[in-house]
Amino acid sequence: MPKTISSPPFFLYFPQKIPGWEKFVIAWIIQGDLTIVVDVGPRASIDSLIAQLEQKGIQQVDFVWLTHIHIDHAGGLGPFLEKFSTAKVIAPAKGVPHLIDPTRLWEGSLATLGEKATAYGPIDPVPRESLFSPEEIGLEGLTILETPGHAPFHLSFCYGNCLFCGESAGVFVPLGEKIYLRPPTPPRFFFEQTLSSVDKMLALPDQTIYFGHAGSHPNSQKMLRLYREQLFRWKGIISEVLQSVSEEVLVKQAMEVLLEKDPMLACFPQMDILAQQRERYFMANSINGFVGYLKSLS
Ligand SMILES: [Zn+2]
Hints:
The protein has a single domain, classed as Ribonuclease Z/Hydroxyacylglutathione hydrolase-like (Metallo-beta-lactamase, Chain A, 4-Layer Sandwich), CATH 3.60.15. Helix content is about 40%, strand content about 15%. It has helices spanning about 45-55, 70-75, 75-85, 95-100, 105-115, 115-120, 135, 190-200, 220-245, 250-260, 275-295; strands at about 10-15, 25-30, 35-40, 65, 90, 130, 140-145, 155-160, 160-165, 170-175, 180, 210, 215.
């Protein structure tokens, strides 16, 4: 018997100690026959996650599904499992060694994120016995897709007409009825791999899609198509800018052109100023990802 989901999945925000990150890091919670947490966030906000789960009367978590092992999605898994010790974790297979011994994960986070990694907090080792492969779990009704692109190891979870895509379908920020969608494509970025992950998810039936940084949309097909178009749009715009300006102003210039021409970024001015600063920070990373990819072609 497939397990049932009793109510629509919901997300919990964990405000971070980084201005502009108040509504950015989240976990999705699925309740029904099983209680499932999709991504747990970093160490700095694990107490907030645990307190919010307790407030909702959740005493036991059956599964943690990790979309990817980046610090803002998985960094707090160690202390989370101290509280919910029977939770079984499914994570990308190639990420598992880095969860068990997070030394390199932490060094990589520091190198990429600097003081933001410090604000997210250290990464503790995850007990090996908490980690399971999808085959060992054998959960009926669960389809797991490998969807690399944003991260080299990335999973999307399809369960009960819900698609938890992590960051493999863009970062979606709902602004009322309007859609803000941004590629999370930091270096090293592989365009074709990202695209083929999107196509894998497009091959699934239309369903509700749940994004790794808040926001859901009832039509996965629509959102995946918008993201697919956006990837090609960014590729076109950034390669034009790359040919026309010097290295020093490249990222800045590309960002201005994208903000002007990409309809998926049209509601950027409606974000508060700190959220805009956060998005500019990530946009610069994402543009650098495209630039590296485009240079690798020549
Ligand atoms: Zn993230």
